[in-house]
């Protein structure tokens, strides 16, 4: 039963779930499984869980985090079914293991296509005409591909995002220089939008509002580092070419 609660919390936290939601789900699952006096403490890099004063607390270390709200929803569905008595302990454990083994997110081709199209649409939204639609499409897709590629080589997310934003800036300058685009600032702004940590910022604010100060501040700091990496990469391009 403890393993089920820890596994559910691990999947949710790795998939972008808010800290307070992870704690609440683990507490509800433990109560439904016959452990009414459970305690959980969740931070972005770990989960502490205890059922009572006689049992030692359990710890799970979280090293990789991504965004997969489908998995968060599936774990919530399992939690509700446990609360309604529709699942046994073994069935719940098997379902959670299946959710954990599922590939995260969409295929890379789908992600690149979505990033490219959203970049082009953001460029239109920011006040530029259709003349910069195609350059933003190219820059956004290339930048997102660079994030994926560099993150495989260097496991530090900051450097992958900085390098990707640098690639976006250089490509935008090149496309405008050869006459394929018109306003490089609009192209750059639209192209970096898929890199902006929107979900992370939202979760940081929600955790702070729920009273989870450690998690809220740490997620806010992570979002700030991502924003700083994007800004630094673009600033380097401007300093070199302006």
From TrEMBL:
<comment type="similarity">
    <text>Belongs to the ThrE exporter (TC 2.A.79) family.</text>
</comment>
<feature type="transmembrane region" description="Helical">
    <location>
        <begin position="106"/>
        <end position="127"/>
    </location>
</feature>
<feature type="domain" description="Threonine/serine exporter-like N-terminal">
    <location>
        <begin position="4"/>
        <end position="240"/>
    </location>
</feature>
<feature type="transmembrane region" description="Helical">
    <location>
        <begin position="133"/>
        <end position="150"/>
    </location>
</feature>
<dbReference type="InterPro" id="IPR010619">
    <property type="entry name" value="ThrE-like_N"/>
</dbReference>
<feature type="transmembrane region" description="Helical">
    <location>
        <begin position="221"/>
        <end position="241"/>
    </location>
</feature>
<feature type="transmembrane region" description="Helical">
    <location>
        <begin position="162"/>
        <end position="182"/>
    </location>
</feature>
<keyword id="KW-1133">Transmembrane helix</keyword>
<keyword id="KW-0812">Transmembrane</keyword>
<keyword id="KW-1003">Cell membrane</keyword>
<keyword id="KW-0472">Membrane</keyword>
<dbReference type="Pfam" id="PF06738">
    <property type="entry name" value="ThrE"/>
</dbReference>
<feature type="transmembrane region" description="Helical">
    <location>
        <begin position="188"/>
        <end position="209"/>
    </location>
</feature>
<protein>
    <submittedName>
        <fullName>Threonine/serine exporter family protein</fullName>
    </submittedName>
</protein>
<dbReference type="InterPro" id="IPR050539">
    <property type="entry name" value="ThrE_Dicarb/AminoAcid_Exp"/>
</dbReference>
């Amino acid at each position: 039963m403890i393993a089920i609660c820890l596994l559910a919390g691990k999947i949710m936290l790795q998939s972008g779930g808010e800290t307070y939601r992870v704690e609440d789900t683990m507490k509800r699952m433990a109560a439904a499984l016959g452990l009414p006096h459970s305690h959980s403490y969740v931070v972005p890099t770990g989960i502490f869980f205890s059922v009572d004063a006689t049992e030692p607390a359990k710890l799970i270390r979280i090293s990789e985090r991504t965004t997969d709200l489908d998995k968060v929803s599936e774990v919530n569905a399992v939690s509700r079914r446990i609360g309604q008595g529709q699942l046994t302990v073994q069935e719940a454990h098997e379902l959670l293991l299946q959710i954990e083994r599922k590939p995260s997110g969409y295929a890379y081709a789908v992600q690149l296509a979505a990033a490219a199209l959203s970049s082009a649409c953001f460029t239109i939204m920011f006040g530029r005409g259709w003349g910069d639609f195609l350059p933003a499409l190219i820059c956004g897709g290339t930048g997102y591909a660079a994030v994926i590629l560099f993150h495989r080589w260097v496991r530090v997310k900051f450097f992958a995002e900085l390098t990707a934003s640098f690639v976006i800036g250089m490509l935008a300058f090149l496309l405008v220089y050869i006459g394929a685009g018109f306003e490089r600032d609009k192209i750059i702004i639209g192209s970096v939008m898929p890199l902006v940590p929107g979900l992370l910022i939202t979760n940081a604010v929600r955790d702070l509002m729920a009273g989870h100060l450690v998690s809220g501040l740490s997620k806010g700091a992570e979002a700030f580092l991502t924003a700083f990496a994007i800004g630094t990469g673009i600033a380097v391009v401007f300093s070199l070419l302006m």
